[in-house]
Amino acid sequence: MTVGSRALGAALALGLGLSGMILAAPASHADEWRDQQYWLEDYGITEAWETTRGEGMTIAVIDTGVDSGHPTLSGAVVGGTDVSGAGDGGAPVGQVATEHGTLVASLAAGRGTSAQADAVAALVDEDVEDLDEDEWADWWEDFEASLEEIYGEDWQDEVDAEARSEFEETRTAPRELTQDADPQDGVIGVAPEASLLSVSLLLQDPNPYGGGTEEQIAEAVTWAVDNGADIINMSLGSGFQEWPEAWDEAFLYAEQNDVLVVAASGNRASGHLSVGAPATIPGVLAVAGVDESREISADSSSQGIAIGIAAASEPLVGAMPGDDYMQWNGTSGASPIVAGAAALVWAANPELSAQEVKHRVLSTADSEGAEGVDPEYGHGVLDVAEAVSGDVPAFETAQYPTLAEWVRVHRRGEVEPTETDEIPEDAGVVAGPEGEPRAMPEPGQPSTAQDWAGPVAVGAAAMLVVAVLTMAVIHYRLVRRQEQS
């Protein structure tokens, strides 16, 4: 690995930090976390859910590992791997920011359930229809005691009275018993019916367990494509606009297999004032961050011409490993919001290509910033409802640069030498004797004023001397003749 590659790897490792992360005490009710997800309404996500919730789509989360056992991610993670050599798809051994991947995953495709809701669901999953009256009475008494154990003394405030009455009368478990049951319970992702793949990295150079950052990123992207990802989310970044040439093949592989890559632009608080790789790679959808009032985040958003769109980056909430939730900030959270939006667009419009999905997301954004593509907002702030169902301008391939074209222009290798050892039989050319090739004639060197001015001056001086000497000789002879006569 070159010095530049090692420096890039170190920058990527540092860029994974959560900018301005704020840990919050657990809320008393799960719906208090849901209430903080202002982007669900503000960005038209709940409206888009009337059309689709992302079913059939798969989002790969290339990050620090995802806790698939968290209630809001139960059933969401359908596969995973570790490319660091230090883990198994969960958080790798020695990983920093172990919560990061779970936070990211919950915003992309969290199911919106909590430990309490899961506990209630487990209670009503029991087969109670065949119980006699005495058995049912005993079961119901135990059921109410369990609700109090789950929710506390105020459990009746948490249980839907109508659903509870229906359950008591029919003994058939209703779909929702709690007041805050889905879609009102806990943190929920933008595409709550999409599937997730977890690809864990160890962003540390040198990596004592395996390959460095450069190799891990390339392997992670390739694995995600091979294992059915439609969309890849990369909530990580570097302080370099350039990327290792080793990444070309992996990101080209994603492009050629019609996989959309979404990446965070980076956080100013981490020292990344300008967008860094992988968000700068052509074809990647780079996401900037805004606050609740849609102002560019002072700490949680880098800027640059690579920016495609902006989404919420502060304040955010998300799932923590275990059963917890927390508040956090950063474009690391804005990116999975956009990845989830892309999943909704694709689920509603399955005939589209990855580039056309990107086109719908960008062309329907709420315009912010300078006219055209703004270096902070890109095309504007995400509008999911419009991206899913709105009218969009005709898609033009030329509007969206591809990595394949960039590589063709910027990665030109040496031209392979043409084999000339054999001459076709029908060429009518007779090969000469073997040996060293003859020397090619060298081109003449063009003359300049400096080349000939010196010699001309010397020649002129010599001619003048000769002329003077000649005149002197003639004069001398004439004088001698006069004296003799």
Automatic annotation (TrEMBL):
Keywords linked to the UniProt accession: Hydrolase, Membrane, Protease, Serine protease, Signal, Transmembrane, Transmembrane helix
Pfam families in the cross-refs: Peptidase_S8 (PF00082)
- Species this protein is from: Nesterenkonia aurantiaca
Chain coiled-coil ranges: none
Gene3D superfamilies tied to this protein = Peptidase S8/S53 domain
Family the entry assigns: Belongs to the peptidase S8 family.
- List, for all copies, the residue spans of the domain called Peptidase S8/S53: 54-114, 183-380
Which residue intervals make up region (Disordered)?
Answer: 415-449
- InterPro entries in the cross-refs: Peptidase_S8/S53_dom, Peptidase_S8/S53_dom_sf, Peptidase_S8/S53_subtilisin, Peptidase_S8_Asp-AS, Peptidase_S8_Ser-AS, Peptidase_S8_subtilisin-rel
Q: What is this protein called?
A: Subtilase family protein
Where is there biased composition of kind Acidic residues? 416-425
Q: Could you state a single Gene Ontology molecular function term?
A: serine-type endopeptidase activity
Signal peptide (from-to): 1-24
Q: Which residues cross the membrane?
A: 452-476
